[in-house]
User: Fold these one by one.
Assistant:
Number 1:
Amino acid sequence: MKDQTTISLNTASLAIGYEKLVVLNDLNLQLKKGELVCLMGQNGTGKSTLLRTISGVQRPLLGDVKIGGTLLHEMKIPDVARKISLVLTEKPTSGNLSVFELVSMGRYPYLGWNVKLSISDKHIIESALEEINLVDLQDKKLYTLSDGQLQKVMIARALVQEGEIMILDEPTSHLDLNNRVEIMCLLRKLAKDRNKSILMATHELDLALQMADKLWLVNRNKTIAAKVPEDLVLNGSMDAVFGHKGFDLKTGRVAHEKTGKIIKLIGVGHGYWWTKNALERKGYTVNDDGIIGVEVLEDKGKFSWTILKNGEDESTNTIENLLNAIGIIFQESLPIRA
């Protein structure tokens, strides 16, 4: 029997779209507390429409959305705002607001007619600024912020809204790798530490596979498969949706063209992993049947590599030199021992 206390949002036979146009159909989904869920699919398949529908911005065509067991369409707008924090892709229109002022807007569902922050409200805002590492930026104007900083501000605003559900539409779009990873880590931490249900639409396949507790994958038949990422990889659903070219979902890595040449690699830790990455990028296959042996050595954080050859082992202190040396050995077809 399922523990209903862990479910913050669920849909029943939900169909979404516009007038007579059904975008997604027969959706029976659940958001659980403490989970980061990534909504994924091809462009134009209805991800944003789904987010708007389950957050109450758009009415469903059929079926129901329930928040904590209460039908969404029966809830008053302020009550929905206290349950769901919504972060859409649009940037704030007023760049002259300060970070503190924008974050404080998350408290509006709790304020009276005079819109005056209480001591308790200010404490909640200050706590969010500290948790999202925005204290040093709280007096900065929005127009002075980078895209990554602005996205963190939007998340802080959603956080002070104190809804148990946080819904975000492409929060990492237009961000560099460092900021994408930071935002994903931040959202995962908030889900765990704050026991929130966090649903985000994203195209960050590599990060979602590593960090999401569950994926909502939009299928080509206008339904959604909701499973842990690994199950969707292993049952072929991810390949069926995305049809990846050059990306091997079995390993989560780019598939390189093989040269047919095999190398036996010896070592442990991240030095081994990055050496293997370089060898495979060059088209070599790494396994114990290699006729060339390479040993990865580490001494106080410094790495070196030894190529094992008959009678005269060769050492180098960079992967670039290692690759060059292996290339020469294969060209000369020297006798090798592993």
Note: The longest strand covers residues 7-18.
Number 2:
Amino acid sequence: METNEKERDILELKNISKSFDGKKVLDDLSLSIGKNEFITLLGPSGCGKSTTLRIIGGFVRPDAGSVWFDGKDITDLAAEKRNVNTVFQKYSLFPHMNVEENIAFGLKLKKKSKSYIQDKIKYALKLVNLEGYEKRNTTALSGGQQQRIAIARAIVNEPEILLLDEPLGALDLKLRHDMQQELIRIKKEVGITFVYVTHDQEEALTMSDRIVVMNRGIIQQMGTSKSIYDEPQNAFVADFIGESNIIDGIMLRDRVVEILGVKIPCVDEGFGERETVDVVIRPEDLEIKPVECGFFSGQVISVLFKGAYYEIKVRTDGYEWVSQSVNAPEVGSQVGLYVVPDNIQIMHKPKSEDAEIIKE
């Protein structure tokens, strides 16, 4: 059964702007978040994602714009009065309290009964797979266990929105992958809205119902993991979400683009004739072929084994391409490069610096 937009959206940010020391961090940002949605704010350091999270939580007040929760303006509502809880990268557990005391802290402030608190502790520990840890000292727990306790402490307060500010950043790679799956499971079980902040594209692609890609305080693109990866709207998004070959091109006419002087068929239409464009080709879509079968030919300059595939760099006249393949050509060999027209993405050149590729 379909629901209308008003029923779906639990949170709305309307025309939010925020500056610190005269530097604009958020610039007229508007965003709607659905009930029970797992939404990720993704972008480089300083893009405004954590400031957005703190505005939602009530820790920071916007200079302009408003925050709406369930149809009510909560812009001026204190953080403790919002039905929102936050889990930070530094879990902020109380070292002088054991596990159950940490989990119970917020419930005691609300003057809940002992039986209610005990029931909630048992439920929360079962949810995060830490049953029997009630009396453990939090300082003796591993990083992953501490993170689970922080999540348990937040969930027992029954927030309608859980804010997570890079909560996996301090964990090692394997544990981070495990916790990604745990968060997805917990999200499904508790049925609340997750707003997740990260600069890690893999986390965003793996976990999210929807991703909000941000840069310099502006939303660059919103959509599902697949739509953003397959159809980036500008060079910044294409460069930030996954690896990409991004090269200047000329759209000669509908369905024909010129790259490095070579006319190549594509599926894009609606550009001006001879319009300068950005062309995006993902490494996994760039096929290594015999020289005579490629659109371009060049020399293999490096081959790196990455486990599931080889990363291959090929230098042609004017560009250094990156391809991913399960087969490895010899370094120094001449190869052809081919791409299926459907896998070529054509984008307008950015009109501002906000949409440009990140320059290291």
Note: The radius of gyration is 24 Å.
